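Supplementary Methods, section 5.1.

A reviewer requested that the exact input to the structure prediction be made available. We therefore reproduce it here, unchanged from the version used in the analyses.
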Amino acid sequence: METIENLAFSLLRTKSAKITWDYDEEADVLYLSMGEPRPAVGIDIGEGLILRYDENHQEIVGLTIICLKRRLLQELIPFNKETPALIKNLGIGTPVYA
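The structure derived from this sequence is encoded token-by-token as follows.
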């Protein structure tokens, strides 16, 4: 079974429009848009992912990923007893491991 992230990225890949992005380092949020960003409704699909949906054209136009840096570090840094302190020292908040 695919993860929510894989499904969301699959949806974004189906479009031929150029994907643009913006990263808000302070908020640790990545905004992906198909083409130039445009008004859309945010649909929370869980796990810190928000699909951007254009109701007028009835199409997905982007994806917002909350806590990107934390997600990447959790994938790249194996969990051990030092991991929470390492992540805290990096200044990205409290690690959450499932």
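The beta strands are 19-24, 29-34, 41-46, 49-54, 59-66. These observations are discussed further in the main text.
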